Amino acid sequence: MYERNVMIDEQFVKITCDSPILWSYITDNFRPANDADPKKKAAIELDIAGDYGAPFSGFDVQVANLNHVVLFKRSDYLIMADPDFRKAVIKAYDRMALKHALLNFYSSYLIHHESGLLIHSSCVIDHGFAHMFAGQSGVGKSTAARLSSPRKLLSDEATLIKISAETGTITAYNSPFRSDIGAIDGGQHCELKSIQLLHQHTENKRTRVAKDTNLVQLLLPRTFYWPHTDKELSIIHELLNKIIERVPVYDLYFQKNNTFWQLIS
After folding, report:
1. What is the pTM of this model?
2. Looking at domain 117-263, does it have CATH number 3.90.228.20?
3. Which of 100, 206, 216, 230 is the most exposed place for a label (fewest CB within 10 A)?
4. For the chain, how big is the Rg over CA atoms in Å?
């Protein structure tokens, strides 16, 4: 059995796992909580098990509330979480299944506690601020991330955003929910300065999207969520509204090279 205390944004998380293959995903992407007090109780406890289910066959997830347990089930993973998402058992077929299961669980945790969102995007640090790149699948989120080197990367697939209840500050964190570029060498959390809606083009152009545009409906399809109660969609709308009130959104038309950063820096 493997065991480690890690940090996800500001949360102290205790993870146990019985599979060396699944454990390699944890060690590749989750930073050890080296500074956490060993006597401090973890905010979240996850028990991960391998050899579950079948290979990936589709993104549809079955959701159910049964006897004070929230269930999320896909062909290649199963999540059994308590109602406040402080504890969960996660069973997964392979590394990809575990990544998707952890993304599912932590998105549910953030929304349940009304503290943040995971958005399908990449996110890069430039001059101490975070800049997010969102768009349709295949438009170039990972490309934009790779072209941004040597800038530090906060995410290559799922940007982890939290909203301060005290100040309203929108902060992007080093997301462990990675696709191609590991999180261990990612940057430190920082304020989110801009959101780019990506469009590949023959020239670079960046224009601000007007606030009277229905930006919530633009960003909602790019938000990871698996609702298990009627309340959750209204929470997501509220959180997205808070983000777009403080963070400008742009259409970014870009060539497949790093010159688009001249429009952002």
Report:
1. 0.93
2. yes
3. 230
4. 18
